[in-house]
Specification:
Elements: E1 9-15, E2 18-24, H1 28-50, E3 54-59, E4 64-67, H2 69-75, H3 79-82, H4 87-91, H5 93-107, E5 112-119, E6 125-136, E7 142-151, H6 153-175, E8 179-184, E9 189-193, H7 195-201, H8 205-210, H9 213-216, H10 221-234, E10 236-245, E11 251-263, E12 266-275, H11 277-305, H12 309-324, E13 328-335, E14 340-347, H13 353-356, E15 360-361, H14 362-372, E16 375-378, H15 390-395, E17 398-408, E18 411-421, H16 429-495, H17 501-525, H18 529-548, E19 554-559, H19 567-588, E20 592-600, E21 603-610, H20 628-637, E22 641-646, E23 652-659
Parallel strand pairs: 19-20
Antiparallel strand pairs: 1-2, 3-4, 3-7, 5-6, 6-7, 8-9, 8-12, 10-11, 11-12, 13-14, 13-18, 14-15, 16-17, 17-18, 20-21, 21-23, 22-23
């Protein structure tokens, strides 16, 4: 039974003589219900006061009916100062006007969420997000709305900071001078690419994003994945072992620096890729320059080591073929007499090539050089049947020919030719430069060899003249005297006037013996090879045995030390000793001669001592010389000292002292 259905207790009483009837009803349950409601409201107030969100209830007349503690603190007002007031009085005219349309919308039954800037009690501006929820009565009419306002200032600051960072990243990304890719290796996907990346590879951004990394590194995916794994493991990485394929199919050498970034919660690799083509080309140029310098240095060392013209020509062909990596080379020399260029040496060509080659007319070569310069390139001689020796080229399957001029001081000496067989070959500028450098070296080496050849021929002619004079002055005179005496003794014998024939024969024998000595001396001078084969001491020993001892002179070589000397010193000392020994044989009539050789305090000393008749060095005419002038010149050339100690009847000592460290 409900409380309202319970019978009321009725009392009848007499009051002031009149009857009074009273009715009493039990309201315990009602009071308990009101207390429960009050407690519930208290709990609700405590709950909303504890929330860090501004909560308020605003009725249809836009007056506050409820607000929590956070709302009070936000505006710096007490609850009693807010409850019942119009929302415009609390927010201010400006803020109210800005939000009026939202209030109208929520009072029309819409839930409205807005972001706005709201001032706080201290005058600061805070970012908030407000949600307005309509409150309907039992008839579906809006009687007010609940306003929930959350402070999102810190979140907005983080977002703004992130946005600024994104803008800065995008600015760097878009304006970088290096190509930048965002890559997801696991999906073989290009997430993003900057304009420089598009320019480098020749794709539009949309085209790149539609491709996988496998399209950029078609032949290097295993290597790329190994690199990516290392980057994800270590957080960063660098490599210069990958190439990038452009839209046109060209492969670019690349230097890649990479690290890890997070994009929408997904770890990706950001790769900065730099096209190293120019650097690689520069490195290759440096390498080629170094190779060319080494080749020129090697060729120079070898060419300078050869003295004969034939050896120089052979070395030029071989070094040129090796340096340019060609199978064949040839040197053609200019013949001034018939105005032709003829092969003088070859490398890699058949032995009969020189015999079958027809000399090229010099006029034809001059025509080509006027048209093409000092370097003539024929890509395929098989296509040029008009060339001299075209049939010979076809016979030996010669294909590409490059001809470089050999010139010194504007004068053509010949040409340096290189050839390929069977297949044409394209030569680079660096190879042309190398060939030109080799041609310059070859021209100088050939000129030097020709000059040496001319000098040797002149030396031979001079030696012949000297021998003629020696023969005339010594052997010829002796033989002439021998002939005259023999004829005179013969006439005397026929006339019966030869009184002492034995003495005449002895005289003739002495003259003949002297002529034999001088002849042996001249013959030995023609054979200086002993110095090269035996060295200084061996050559001196051979000289004493071959000349002095066979001439009846007691000859000795006394060497206190054995040391290897520079060739120039050995030759000079040998020639000085030779001249001194010659003088002894010719002029001293010595019975013995001794050659001393010793090393003393860093100097080599050579002495030639005889027991002949001696002479006065001061009385010798320079024109007579006795070889003293040549000896003195040789010693001065070595920076040494020459001493001659002699007197009539006391023999002669010739002493030479020179340093042991002169360059050869």
């Amino acid at each position: 039974m409900r409380d309202e259905d319970k019978p009321e207790a009725q009392y009848k009483a007499q009051q002031d003589g009149a009857p009074v009837i009273s009715s009493v009803r039990d309201i315990t349950d009602q009071m308990q219900g009101e207390e429960a409601i009050s407690e519930s409201e208290e709990r609700m107030h405590r709950l909303i006061d504890a929330l860090p969100v501004c909560i308020s209830y605003i009725d249809r007349d836009l007056r506050y009916r409820l607000n929590n503690k956070t709302y009070e603190e936000w505006f710096g007002l007490k609850r009693s100062e807010i409850t019942g007031r119009h929302i415009k009085d609390v927010l201010g005219d400006k803020l109210f006007a800005e939000n009026k349309k939202h209030y109208d919308a929520v009072l029309s039954g819409q839930t409205v969420t807005i972001e706005r800037v709201t001032p706080t009690k201290d005058g600061k501006q805070r970012y908030v997000v407000g949600t307005h929820i309509p409150d309907f009565d039992e008839h579906g009419e809006v009687r007010g709305f609940i306003a929930l306002v959350t402070d999102i200032t810190e979140r907005k600051q983080v977002e703004e900071s992130a946005q600024k960072g994104e803008e800065q990243f995008r600015k760097i990304f878009d304006h970088s001078n290096d190509a930048i890719f965002l890559i997801d290796p696991a999906r073989d996907a290009i997430v993003d690419a900057n304009p420089k990346a598009c320019e480098m590879l020749g794709y539009s951004r949309e085209e790149l994003l539609s491709l996988g990394m496998s399209a950029i590194h078609p032949n290097e995916m295993p290597k790329l994945m190994t690199f990516a794994h290392s980057v994800f493991k270590q957080g960063h990485g660098w490599t210069d072992e990958l190439t990038c394929r452009t839209k046109k199919g060209r492969f670019l050498p690349a230097e890649i620096s990479a690290s890890i970034v997070e994009i929408d919660g997904q770890e990706c690799m950001i790769a900065l890729i730099r096209d190293t083509t120019e650097r690689k080309e520069a490195e290759e140029r440096i390498r080629r320059e170094a190779t060319r310098a080494d080749a020129l240095a090697h060729a120079a060392a070898r060419l300078n080591a050869h003295l004969t013209l034939d050896a120089v020509l052979d070395a030029v062909c071989e070094e040129t073929a090796r340096a340019l990596n060609v199978p064949a080379a040839a040197v053609l020399l200019n013949d001034e007499n018939d105005a032709t260029l003829s092969p003088a040496a070859t490398f890699g060509l058949p032995p009969d090539y020189l015999e079958k080659y027809e000399p090229n007319p010099r006029a034809l070569f001059d025509t080509y050089t006027r048209q093409h310069g000092s370097l003539i390139v024929v890509p395929d001689v098989q296509d040029r049947p008009d060339l001299p020796n075209a049939q010979l080229y076809a016979r030996y399957d010669i294909c590409t020919a490059v001809v470089a001029s050999l010139s010194r001081e504007g004068q053509l000496m010949g040409t340096l030719n290189v050839y390929t067989f069977a297949e044409p070959r394209t030569f680079g500028d660096d190879e042309f430069a190398l060939l030109t450098g080799l041609a310059d070296q070859a021209a100088q080496a050939i000129e030097n060899a020709q000059l040496r050849q001319q000098a040797e021929l002149a030396a031979v002619m001079e030696e012949r003249g000297r021998l003629a004079r020696e023969l005339h002055d010594s052997v010829t005179q002796s033989l002439y005297s021998l002939t005259l005496l023999a004829e005179g003794y013969q006439r005397s014998a026929r006339a019966g006037r030869l009184e002492h024939p034995e003495e005449s024969l002895i005289e003739l024998g002495g003259i003949a013996q002297q002529a034999l000595k001088e002849m042996r001396l001249l013959v030995h001078q023609l054979r200086p090879l002993a110095l090269e084969r035996e060295g200084l001491l061996g050559a001196l020993h051979q000289r004493l045995s071959a000349v002095e001892k066979r001439a009846g002179v007691e000859a000795r070589l006394v060497a206190e030390d054995v040391v290897e000397l520079p060739a120039s010193i050995e030759e000079a000392l040998y020639r000085i000793a030779q001249e001194a020994l010659n003088n002894t044989l010719k002029h001293a009539t010595a019975m013995s001669v001794t050659v001393y050789f010793r090393i003393d305090d860093g100097k080599v000393e050579l002495e030639v001592v005889d027991n002949g008749r001696g002479f006065d060095p001061n009385a010798i005419d320079e024109r007579q010389g006795m070889g003293l002038v040549s000896m003195r010149e040789r010693v001065e050339g070595l920076g040494g000292v020459l001493t001659i100690d002699s007197a009539p009847g006391e023999g002669t000592k010739v002493k030479v002292s020179v340093g042991t460290h002169r360059n050869s």
